[in-house]
Amino acid sequence: AARSAGPQSVRAADAGLNQLAYGRLRLEEDLRRALDQNELEVHFQPQIALKPGVVSGAEALVRWRHPIRGLVPPTEFVTLAEECGLVEQLGRFVLAEASRVCAGWTARGMPLRVAVNVSTLQFRNPRFGESALEIIRAAGADPSRIELEITESAAMGDPEHAARELAPLKAAGVRIAIDDFGTGYSNLATLTQLPFDVLKIDRAFVLDALNAPAARVVVGTVIGMADNLGVETVAEGVETEEQLDFVVSHGCTYAQGYLFGRPMSADAFEAWYANRLVAELRALADRAAPG
Ligand code: C2E
Ligand code: MG
Ligand code: MG
Ligand code: MG
Questions:
Q1: How much distance in Å is there from the Cα of 47 to the middle of ligand 2?
Q2: Which stretch is the leader sequence (predicted)?
Q3: With 0-12 CB in 10 A as exposed, 13-18 as middle and 19+ as buried, what is 178?
Q4: Which of 43, 111, 144, 234 maximizes the CB count within 10 A of its CB?
C-alpha cells in the first residue's frame, strides 16, 4: 500500500495544483467581470468617538457579491486584484463609492467621516495623492470628511514617496490613518515625520489585551505615544465590554468592532445610525434628568 501511495499521491497533488491554477484563472476572469459589472459593494462599519460616546464615522470595506459564491470578503480577492493588475481599478471604485455615500450623508445632515483603505500597490502610484483627491472631489465629498488608511508597511516602504503623495491630500483636509499599527516594523523616527492624524491599533492586540500582558503593553504604549505625538487612536476589533473598558481607560480616541456594529450596506448603516442616535439622545436625557 505504501508503494502505490507514492505515484498516486503525486497524481493527486498534480490534480490539486491544476485545479488550483484553474480556480485562480477563473477567479481572475470573474474579478475582471465583477469590476466591469458592478458586482463589488462597499459596506460601512461604525466608528465611535469614545469621549462623548457618539458615532464619528465609518470604515468603508469592500465586498464582492459573487453570483455563485455569495458575499466574498476582501481577504479573498484584494491580494488577487493586486497580483493581476486590477487593484488600481478596485481602489478607484471603492474611493469613489465611499466618497459618494459620504457626500450623501453630509447632505442629509449626518456629520460622519468615512475611512477608506488603500492597498500598498495602489499607494505606490506616482500620482496617488493627486488622483485620490480628484476622485473625492468628483464624488462631491468634503475632503475633510474622508480619511485614507495606509498600512504601516506601505507608508514606511518609501517614506519620501509617502510624504510627497500625502502632502496635497493633507493640504486639502483629508485625514491620514496608519492601519494595522503594531504589526510592522516601523522606524519610529521616520514614521513620526509622516503627516498622519490617527493610528489604528491592530485587532490582534485588542483581542489579546485582556489575557496577554505583552499585548496590553503594546496597546498602552501605542496610545501613550500617539498622545505625545498629538495624534488620535482607533482600537480595531472591539468585541466585548471588557475590551472597550480597557481601551477607554487608556485614553483611546475611537473604537470600532462588532460590539458596536458589523460592516453593513450603506442603507443598513443609515438605519442603524438612526436607531443609535435615538439611544444616544435618550442617554443624554437620562443624564440631564436622572430617575
Ligand atoms: P482592516 O482595514 O484592518 O479592516 C478591519 C477588518 O476587521 C474588517 O475585515 C472588519 O470587518 C474586521 N472587523 C471589524 N471589527 C471586528 C471585530 O470586532 N471582530 C473581528 N473578528 N473582526 C472585525 P474585512 O472587511 O474582512 O477586511 C479585511 C481587510 O481587507 C481589511 O483589514 C483591509 O486590509 C482589507 N480591505 C477591506 N476593504 C478594502 C478596500 O476597499 N481596499 C483595500 N485595498 N483593502 C481592503
Ligand atoms: Mg482598514
Ligand atoms: Mg485595520
Ligand atoms: Mg487590521
A1: 11
A2: none
A3: buried
A4: 234
Interval 161-176: pLDDT, tens: 999 999 999 999 999 9
Q: What is the pTM of this model?
A: 0.92
Q: Which amino acid is at 111?
A: P
Position in ligand 1 atom list of the atom nearest CA 94 = 41
**CA–CA separation, 178 and 192 (whole Å):** 11
Confidence class for position 85, pLDDT limits 50, 70, 90: very high
Q: Are 230 and 245 in contact (CB under 8 A)?
A: no
Q: Is 73 in the pocket of ligand 1 (CB under 6 A)?
A: yes
Which cell goes with 173?
Answer: 483636509
Please give the ipTM for the structure prediction: 0.98
**Residue 11: how many CB atoms within 10 A of its CB?**
10
What does the pLDDT look like over 190-218, one tens digit per residue?
Answer: 888 899 999 999 999 999 888 888 888 98
Choose which residue among 92, 181, 203 to substitute to test ligand 1 binding: the one with the highest number of ligand atoms within 8 A of its C-beta.
203
| Phi, psi (degrees; rounded to nearest 5) at 61 | -130, 125
